[in-house]
Amino acid sequence: MPKYCLTCWNEEYGTAYRKKDVMIEGHPMRCECCGRLREDIVICVYEKESFHTDLQQFPEFEQWILLPLRMLDGLLGLLWLLLSLPYRCYKRKKQAQEEPSELSDVDK
């Protein structure tokens, strides 16, 4: 793999990677393309897990669609937890009442 700085890498391969999209060499090395001593030498390129990981790759109109949907998903999740809280408390109390009787049966 050639040792290119991030700028030369993007020019050579026609990409628009940022520092968070690639793994960068930890110490200064000489770029094989431009010949300058650079600290942003690309070691490897991260593959995106899914297209939802980074909102910056979407055009603005799609960002305004996805952001409210994510917020709605979070609010619905919170609402579900709040509505199921009394049932979960009831189940926990019921389990706590049943456990001592099981222990007393084992001791007999």
Q: What is shown here, in short?
A:
52% of the residues lie in helices and 10% in strands. It is mainly alpha-helical.
Topology:
Blueprint: H1 6-13, E1 22-24, E2 29-30, E3 37-38, E4 42-45, H2 60-107
Features:
2 domains; 4 strands; 2 helices; two-stranded antiparallel ribbon; single chain; mainly alpha; 108 residues; elongated
Count of DSSP helices? 2
Main pleated sheet: 2 strands, antiparallel
Radius of gyration: 27 Å
Helical content stands at 40-55%
**Please, how many domains?**
2
Uncertain spans, ≥5 residues at pLDDT below 50? 49-53
Number of strands: 4
What is the element string, with H for helices and E for strands? HEEEEH
Strand order of the largest sheet: 1-4
Shape: elongated
Report mean pLDDT, rounded to a whole number.
78
- Amino- and carboxy-terminal Cα gap: 72 Å
Going by helix content, strand content and strand pairing, the class is mainly alpha
Oligomer: single chain
Percent strand: 5-15%
Verbal overview:
The protein contains two helices and four strands. It has 108 residues and is mainly alpha-helical. It has two domains: 6-45, no CATH class; 57-107. The strands form two sheets. A two-stranded antiparallel ribbon has the order 1-4. It is elongated, with a radius of gyration of 27 Å.
